[in-house]
Amino acid sequence: MENQDKISITSKTLASGNRQVKFFIEDKEKPQYGYLLMTEPKSVGEIIEEIKMRMERRRSAALNMNPFFPLQPTQDDHNFYLFSA
């Protein structure tokens, strides 16, 4: 993820005990928002790193830019949802 993107998060605890994190990616060209379901407690920094990692994984799978590290076809990630704002 590019460094100029800013990620802000809000979260709430669900009845199941899991934590739902809503995040906003502030980007002038392509603002996005999404949800991440966390099953274990993590700090804000760890949550943001998890979002960045999943975004990068999604980009890599879509572009398949690295021919030296072939990726298996990605399965749906039912704990991570991303939308254009």
TrEMBL record:
This is Uncharacterized protein. It comes from Algoriphagus halophilus.
